[in-house]
Amino acid sequence: MHSLQILLSAFFDICRLRLRPQDLPASSVLLGLILLLYLVVTGTLSLIQFPINDAILLSLIEIGLLVVLTSSLLYITHYATRITQTITALAGTNSLLGILTLPLVLWIEYYNGDASLPVLLLLGLLVWNFVIHAHILRHALAVSFFMGFNLTLIIHLLSFSIINQLVTLT
């Protein structure tokens, strides 16, 4: 259990911009476990709006896009050795923020009318997610925070566009 606390603390420290993705172990087993956790979290969030089959499919697509786009970016920029740690950091922090997002999304669903506070909090989590991703990409690619933020925006817009196209097909 002590190792789990250390790992959880590391992801919280990445969310607080105190650790870098390189500070995580480069373990494919850890990456697999974190991706599984990310699948559970995104699947649970997707279940609020979609039937179970669609929720699982959309979650798998989201994870696939995270892996493919991040790996491609790191490979193209000659930082392929950082792929495992970077994806672990992104998926782990996304999982933490997803867990924080779940009660807000349920709050919005429950109070269909006046949900301004949870929407504002959700917007804050979205902005913080972008900051965390920019922080991770900054260190993974050895670029400025500004460049990390721009790459984060591009990756999120591309992912959103692809997922949105797939949702409109169903």
TrEMBL record:
It comes from Candidatus Thiomargarita nelsonii. This is Yip1 domain-containing protein. Keywords: Membrane, Transmembrane, Transmembrane helix. The chain crosses the membrane at residues 26-50, 56-76, 88-109, 115-134, 141-163.
